[in-house]
Amino acid sequence: MPAFETPALQTPITQDVLTLPRRAAEAARPNLVGLTRDGMRAALLDAGVPEKQVNMRVGQVWAWIYERGVRDFAQMTNLSKSLRADLDGRFEIRLPEIVRKDVSGDGTRKYLVRIAGGHEVETVYIPEEGRGTLCISSQVGCTLTCSFCHTGTQRLVRNLTADEIVGQVMQARDDLGEWPAPGRNPKDETRLLSNIVLMGMGEPLYNFDNVRDAMKIVMDPEGISLSRRRITLSTSGVVPEIARCAEEIGCLLAVSFHATTDDVRDRLVPINRRWNIDALLGALRAYPKLSNSERITFEYVMLRDVNDSDDDARRLVKLIEGIPAKINLIPFNEWPGAPYERSSNNRIRAFADIVYKAGYASPIRTPRGEDIMAACGQLKSDTERVRKSRREIEAEARA
């Protein structure tokens, strides 16, 4: 195994872009998907819906879009024909486009999703017994350049808008056939998509407003209706936004931790140079929703001879002492040109045993979708991947 070296950073470790507005040609009519209830109310008022009716109309349109998955105003039968025609002339119900679907031998589905401007992101659905988890993206590319992550080798292009984030959920429900059949109560349907993790491409807390609005829509009880406890947001440690996440979204929190010293974490997760381990743990201890019933998940990728020693395990449990937590140990998912190797199974089990004996749950994540490059840390825009040879990818990773 070569000495531990980290590829030079190619992009900033802090957010430096805004959500780019669509060109007028790409959004001739406003999209109702992604609007909050207040936003939809303002849009309908602007469209001429009388103020006395607008709250009722918002509720009706909202239910058609998010509870029943309807995309055609003509099918919204509890609205008058004239209102349906007027809405159809003024608005769209537009989702991102699934341009490719890969299905793993273990049932994992990876969707290549095209958004406005021709950019692409990846979304992954992971079926398990009794649940189904959708891993969604929040940015095109990523600004954090975590050295073990394939996504981090793609430069950040832009933030996703709220409709593009919600749209990933709706497209997955389309593919799973999860919208209720006509005449069926939406609440009676089987929930194939029962959980969401914001662990795809991008750092969610660097796109806070759009992520917040999208998750509020997903959690709305008169729509997709997922409990906040079924949504987990994963951050690499954007300390100033952590408390805001609890207050304005209220979902569960996961932290990409991956190291027990600042020296190693600086190299694995470069944002640590801005907010180090001490600052991050301070924010987590003050997390408003921190309790034994809502533990913080510490994600820890297992890298051979880098962060997987017994001493690392002992330092980890010492660092998080007093924080209700569980530690997800993630066998490193290799990709072309990756500068690291996966820890051995014996080493991972020894590490997990130390953590478990210290009183923390330490599940070892079973890699899913590796055969379709859908596993944790492997996501990367397909257009970036397919137009480069393996040699070019390797050279890029080591540049």
Unreliable runs, pLDDT <50, ≥5 residues?
A: 1-25, 374-399
Distance between the termini: 19 Å
The CATH topology annotation of the largest domain reads as: TIM Barrel
Rough shape?
A: elongated
Binned, the helix content reads 25-40%
CATH architectural category of the largest domain? Alpha-Beta Barrel
Q: Report the oligomer.
A: single chain
- Main β-sheet: number of strands, strand sense, barrel status? 9 strands, mixed
CATH-level-4 superfamily name of the largest domain: Aldolase class I
Work out the helix count. Answer: 12
- Give the strand order, joined by hyphens, for the main sheet: 1-2-3-4-7-8-9-10-11
Mean pLDDT comes to: 85
Query: What is the CA-atom radius of gyration, in angstroms?
Result: 22 Å
Instruction: Give the CATH level 1 class of the largest domain.
Output: Alpha Beta
Structure description:
The structure is a single chain. Residues 1-25 and 374-399 have low confidence and may be disordered. The protein has helices spanning 37-46, 51-67, 81-90, 162-176, 208-219, 239-248, 262-268, 277-285, 310-319, 345-357, 382-386, 390-398; strands at residues 97-103, 109-114, 120-128, 131-135, 139-140, 158-159, 195-198, 231-235, 252-256, 296-302, 325-331. Strands 1-2-3-4-7-8-9-10-11 form a 9-stranded mixed beta sheet, with helices on one face. The protein has a two-stranded antiparallel sheet with strand order 5-6. Strand 1 and strand 2 (109-114) form a beta hairpin. It has 399 residues and is α/β, with parallel strands linked by helices. The radius of gyration is 22 Å and the shape is elongated. Helix 1 crosses helix 2 (51-67), helix 4 (162-176) runs parallel beside helix 5 and helix 9 runs parallel beside helix 10.
